[in-house]
UniProtKB/TrEMBL annotation, chain A:
Cellular compartments per GO CC: plasma membrane
Transmembrane portions of the chain: 34-58, 93-114, 126-143, 175-198, 234-258, 278-302
Entry keyword set: Cell membrane, Membrane, Transmembrane, Transmembrane helix, Transport
UniProt-recorded name of the protein: Sorbitol/mannitol transport system permease protein
TrEMBL record, chain B:
Keyword Cell membrane belongs to the record: yes
Family classification: Belongs to the binding-protein-dependent transport system permease family.
Taxonomic lineage from the root: Bacteria, Bacillati, Actinomycetota, Actinomycetes, Kitasatosporales
Protein name: Sorbitol/mannitol transport system permease protein
Annotated Gene Ontology cellular component terms: plasma membrane
Keyword annotations from UniProtKB, A to Z: Cell membrane, Membrane, Transmembrane, Transmembrane helix, Transport
Intracellular or extracellular location(s): Cell membrane
Amino acid sequence: MTATTTAPAASPEIRNPVRRPSARLRAWATRAPLLPALIFMIVVTQLPFVATLVISFFDWNSLYPDARHFTGLDNYQEVLTDPDLRHSVGTTVLLTVAVVLASLVLGLVLALLLDRRFRGRGIVRTLLIAPFLVVPVAAALLWKHVLYNPEYGLFNGLLHYVGGPQPDWISSTPLLAVEASLVWQWTPFMMLILLAGLQSRDHEQIEAARVDGASDWQIFVHLTLPHLRRYLELGALLGSIYIVQNFDAVFTITSGGLGTANLPYTVYQSFYQAHENGLASAAGVLVVIGSIVIATFALRVVSSLFREEVSRA
Amino acid sequence: MSTTAPHARRVRGKGAGLGLLAWLLGIAFFLPIAWMALTSFHSETDAATNPPSFAAALTLDGYREFFGAGGGASPWPALINSTVASVASTLLVLLLAFPAAYALSINRVRKWTDVLFFFLSTKMLPAVAGLLPIYLFAKNAGMLDNIWLLVILYTSMNLPIAVWMMQSFLAEIPVAVIEAAKVDGARLPTILARVVAPISLPGMAATALICFIFSWNELLFARVLTGVVAETAPVFLTGFITSQGLFLAKVCAASLVISLPVLAAGFAAQDKLVQGLSLGAVK
């Protein structure tokens, strides 16, 4: 150690030419295993995004490729002023916020219940995880045809027994119908993360509080909830990242109709069906900007959890 | 004694009540899946009745129809495509993620946390952000409707998760164990094969399962970039979006069969699922 740190200062001309290549070589040997993964990610994810950014400045309909020309920020202006697209921004926000909040609250209730010992806890846990493990398109089909169908769906079938009304769920409350199916799928995810949080609590501290006469409610509010805070944040932010990008449920249940088109669906539609490459790209860039806002928070939360992990190690 | 007994009974009573509530909620969440399973074994006429018929005769017709007995399209090409895309991309992910995780946890590069966060940040780039250029590239390169294009895209989709997970698994290996092997004269390949691999094998398996699940489930890329030849199972399922009542049993059978690999993998890796989905941040 001392030899390498003091020697260059003493005789830099002689030492450096010998030492430098080997140090550089060693640095590259350390980096080498990382490079394939790093280069792969840059080529497959960053380059296409740069291309999207470039295309977003062009007026380009793929049905009229010869009319392609640079238009500056016109596409962005059109995206932001088009009532349909503006509506899809609102839909995306509403869908994401509603699904994340509802599944987080439900997931918390389920995690608290599952944190207790009771007969058959393993079975209940398995039953609860199942919705998350159904292929998303299959889950959406299940809700669309098997549950929501006004004539033979399970919901109206059960309502029949209590003599209730027989609504057409998807056409009367389309966005809510999409949201309910997503809450069903994402609640288990929230439950799993919060359950991991609950099980990492300091049980001695809870026992001590109980001995001191604290009620269950006081323990929940003053010990459990503060401990869970970062797990709640993590669940909310990871959930947001996935749900903001949701395509499967919107595509399957309503095909973007009845005011349920969110931004990913709109982007898909504007280039896949309307062939408006420039507009689609501008909308895509706006989705990215929205995601960056969420991601900034997400990275902060993950990195705070991560730092704790590193310092503990 | 006399004062603690009723208290204990009350606590136990409350515990039983909450246990019952957990059971009820568990059943409520599982009910749609159970109903889907039951419907898949009904005939189409029994499936499409209101009120629902709980005691209708069971039949395998829905499954026969799904597998193409009624003259419909066979799901086998789609199932095979999904298997190829998921398995191949999972293997490629492991091949790329293991060395990267090694460089981020055992023989660490400088600024390794920054690199780790770069991987995570790519996960936050929405798929639609790069879809159009990828589509145009595939079209010009003659790679539309090609399953290997999906393999590459699914690899990029899962690589960040895999690097994070494996990094956290490898970081748990005590430095002393590796140092001891070095003192014994073991070289890097031996250390990797004899020390690192055995310890990290369960973590690798969990990583592989999660990558498999995500690839198997993916719809957007598959929908846009494949057609007749490379169609995957979720794309095959989209064929049922507009099908009306006549095919309810078939829809249920299809949904269940296509979800089966994911359900099996997910149940097998329940505990590791959390760690993977939270990118290793929660253990």
